[in-house]
Design brief:
Layout (H helix, E strand, L loop, with lengths): L1 E5 L2 E4 L4 E8 L6 E8 L6 E6 L6 E3 L7 E6 L4 E6 L8 E9 L14 E2 L3 E6 L1
Parallel strand pairs: 2-11
Antiparallel strand pairs: 1-3, 3-8, 4-5, 4-9, 5-6, 7-8, 9-10, 9-11
Amino acid sequence: VQLQAFGGGLVQAGGSLRLSCAASGRTFSNYAMGWFRQAPGKERELVAAISRSGSTTSYGDSVKGRFTISRDNAKNTVDLQMNSLKPEDTAVYYCGAREGYGAYTYRSRGQYNYWGQGTLVTVSS
C-alpha cells in the first residue's frame, strides 16, 4: 500500500492543524493505521493509532485529549486532528499501515510495514 501524508505547516501555539494520509494500492479497510512523529534527535514515537474499521483508537500519552484520529474507508484516508498545539509537538509526522486484525490497534513503530513520506509540523511559541 502506498501512503501520502499532507497537511503540515507552521502554526502558533494553541492553534489547530489537520493532517491527512491518503492510501492507494490495496484494500484500505484491511489495514490498521497509525500516526507517528519524529522530532530532531529523537526516536519516532506513536501519536495515534486506529483499527481497520475505526472502532478502536489509541493515543500517545502526550497527545491524549488534544488529538483525534479518524478514518474514512470509503475515501481511503486517515486524518489526525490536532488541537491545542504546543511547541513540543513540532516534528515530522508520518502515517503508517499494517494489516489489521479485528479491533486491534498497534502502538509500536516496528509493527508497521508501510510508511508515508512524512509532513512537517512546526509549532511556534
